Amino acid sequence: MAYKTIETERRDEVLLITLSREQRLNAFNHAMLDELLEVVDELDADDALRAAIFTGRGRAFCAGADLGRGGATFDRGKAATEVPRDGGGRLTTRLFDCRKPLIAALNGPAVGVGVTMTLPMDIRIASDRARFGFVFTRRGIVPEAASSWFLPRLVGISQAMEWVATGRLFDAEEARAGRLISRVVPHDDLLEAAFALAREIADNTSGAAVCLARQMMWKMLGAAHPMQAHSLDSRVLFQLGKLPDAYEGVQAFLEKRPARFTMRPARDLPPPYPWWETPPFDP
Prior knowledge:
Layout: E1 6-11, E2 14-19, H1 30-45, E3 51-56, H2 87-96, E4 102-106, E5 110-111, H3 113-116, E6 123-127, E7 131-133, H4 147-155, H5 157-166, E8 169-171, H6 172-177, E9 183-185, H7 190-204, H8 207-219, H9 226-240, H10 244-254
């Protein structure tokens, strides 16, 4: 499908998604939100795809929300009677439920929603030209995109509050030291490094197992006690142990050959998936 604010490219089993409003530093707007939601649905439905990489066109990853309305950018107007869902949160909660591993290849500045949209992605790597900023308090607003949930879980409350309270920009090395990203690579090597990660996933693992592991890791971040994780682990292992990929994974190891996994996350996930209930939006 042709998009207006993003570009997509399939490379074997990996989907490259490029934010493409270069003239606006890939600033986030309603059209980009709609297209990103659509492409994530397509990613989930296509069992030929095993992973996705997100990057930006030009010198920025995403400069944040498009501020073309000036000071009224975040004003819904006096006529608004109901609290609308934040657009960034619509995207991040959808990414949270995605069945495929997501890699952010941060090629340049990622500010505001440009960085919060990446928080539910599984791996974040950055060019040495990348810069980051949770700049909301400098704009008179608060962090969005459910980042009050995601960010402290990723980097800890003290680091999260330092970045949010100051609203300052910081470089890729500080982001790595603070555990926001996993590695910094030379700018020209960024996509190669991201594709190497995606290929390692696609070439060596069960798509169904990766999907379930991803959901277990993210959903258990909110568990009150490790016994909840133990119960879930036990149920999923019990179900997977009866299915073809578990048999194939062990046999391939014993026979010293590459595994040939056949289960696919769009159709072959066993119960208890999905085991969680998404709370309703209720402001």
